[in-house]
Amino acid sequence: xxxxxxxxxxxxxxxCGETTFADHSVLWDRLVSEWQLAFHERTYIDxxxxxxxxxxxxxxxxxxxxxxxxxxxxxTLTLLEFARxxxxxxxxxxxxxEAGTLSPVLRRLPGHTLAAYPAVDIHVxxxxxxxxxxxxxxxxxxxVANPIRALEECRxxxxxxxALCFTIPTIVERLSRSRVGLPKSYHGSQATNxxxxxxxxxxxxxxxxxxxxxxxxxxxxxAVDYPSALALSARKGPAAAQQR
Length: 244
Ligand SMILES: [Zn+2]
Known about the structure:
The chain has 244 residues and is α/β, with parallel strands linked by helices. The chain is 25% helix and 23% strand. The strands form 3 sheets. Strands 5-4-6-7-11-10 form a 6-stranded mixed sheet, sandwiched between helices. Strands 1-2-3 form a 3-stranded antiparallel sheet.
């Protein structure tokens, strides 16, 4: 189905600037059951993953992430325009695992580096301290063994003025829970059962606490379409004593 969203909810694609979207259903019944999603939760996760810009193909998750990146770098350009702009040339960007439909756009940034599992493990990355202006990942943290350690590692490789932008699938009316000890649940597609896509944490309303526990000094949440399209951005800030 292709449609323009109702005027009250017009979403501008922060990747390409278009406003027309097509809906695709993404979730399948078994995953919905494992995740214990209510109908309205299934609806907004489907929208997050399956409502895509008809021009550039970005889904709402990627559009929220692009919006967070634009805010962090301080541009009003679309992300595609920014990638060609002079101000992008000095920006060193680390993309950890392919960031969904945003990955082809991030690759256009002149200072782009892709770190992909299993060659690079987010818990122990082969980069020096203070190496990047921007670190980006999308729907990765729910698959890693230790999300706080992963976020600490993202913070380590950021310059003092740098920022992390990321998405995680979040059910906003519950708290996060570990799936360790529960039956294995996989993202990706119905046929997926590779261990790099097994879900280890289901994130909820307390997802922001992971960011601060990893030592970031400040964070914000960009909501392109609440609650379906949220992206977090976090500033490295000065080194501080961390408390767990
Ligand atoms: Zn677009």
